[in-house]
Amino acid sequence: MLITIDSLTRKGSRPEWLKAPAPVGDHYRDLKGLVSRLKLHTVCESAACPNIGECWNQRTATFMILGNVCTRRCGFCNVQKGAPLEVDFDEPNRVAEAVEALRLRFAVVTSVNRDDRKDGGATQFADTIRAIRSRVPSCKVEVLVPDFQGKKSSMDIVVDAAPDVLNHNTETVPRLYRNVRLGASYERSLEMLAYVKEKNPAIPTKSGLMVGLGETLDEVKAVLRDLRQSKVDIITIGQYLRPTPNHLPVIRHVHPAEFRELKDEGMALGFQHVESGPLVRSSYHAAAHAGYEEESAEVAATL
Fold first, then answer.
1. What is the 3-state secondary structure (H, E, C) of 221-235?
2. Are 113 and 65 in contact (CB under 8 A)?
3. Domain presence at residue 239
4. Tell me, what CATH number does 217's domain have?
5. In a domain, 261, yes or no
6. Backbone dihedral region of 278: left (phi > 0), alpha (psi from -120 to 50 degrees) or beta?
7. Which end of the chain is more exposed for a tag (fewer CB within 10 A), N or C?
8. Distant-in-sequence, close-in-space partners of 40: CB < 8 Å, separation ≥ 6
């Protein structure tokens, strides 16, 4: 069923199912102003997420802590690479202020890789979780963390802060790691996800995959089996989109039918939730992934 390169990719165009709302509107402008005023970063902007128009107009965003410069050079990611910024230790408080201003009941926090830090930035994650809970006690917090170079002591710091969901993306199949996730290890990612469940089985774990980079359907299904073996609860699967000509090319645009097939495969394996579709990203509809959809919809309706 899989083909190497489809005609749409050869022409450089995108199919209808990959079109997303434009980043315009009152809520979009308000949120952009809030992020600028509080001197915060979002992965929505830094990673050139196609869903920014939809999400920001629903007053949801994924906060990116520890600066906007990454110490790794993954071939798919639009986040700036280079010498990392100084750690801003007041940043957790400003993230909490933004969460309060947006009246969020479910907040998502991620970061750049900070391999320059002894703890990989884990303490900043923990401080942000606690700052949000202190300011908005009812808000649930999901964190999307790096692999911390396999340091379980760093993962302990995050787990001890008791996030409501802990996400770490696997991103792709093992065969493609050398080109896609430079500096990362497939086995290490699986090990860290499994460790979270050993440390605190009550915390739902989550991981995400991109497709369209040259993997086969069977390879993706094998990753799903590995993730389930690591007791991961929630999976997201989305189409890779090339941010700039300097990034890895899109090998093919995966048809929505194949995303449905992968969703069915994941549910059959026993995942609690599988979000699988062309525009799916790790934080897209994150509240719904974790079972908080009704609460989030209730808040959005009042805005």
1. HHHHHHHHHCCCCEE
2. no
3. yes
4. 3.20.20.70
5. yes
6. alpha
7. N
8. 63, 64, 91, 94, 95, 98
- What is the C-alpha radius of gyration for the chain, rounded to an integer number of angstroms? 18
* Range(s) of the domain holding residue 63: 20-300
- The DSSP letter of residue 148 is G
pTM, full prediction? 0.83
Domain count, the chain: 1
Mean pLDDT by 10 residues, the chain (303 residues): 36 64 59 76 57 52 82 68 86 93 86 90 97 95 95 98 96 92 92 98 96 96 98 95 85 94 97 92 68 46 29
Inter-axis angle of helices 217-229 and 256-269, nearest 10: 30
Q: Rounded to 5 degrees, what angle do the CA atoms 16, 19, 24 make?
A: 150
| 3-class DSSP state of 127 | helix
Token reading at 254: 């995966």
Give me 173's structure tokens. 């199949």
Asked whether residue 217 is assigned to any structural domain, the reply reads yes
Q: What is the DSSP string of 23-69?
A: S-SHHHHHHHHHHHHTT-EEHHHHTT-TTHHHHHHTT--EEEES-SE
Convert 92-120 to b/e letters by CB count within 10 Å (16 or more is b).
bbbbbbbbeebebbbbbbbbbbbbebebb
Q: How many helices (H) and strands (E) does the chain have?
A: 13, 10
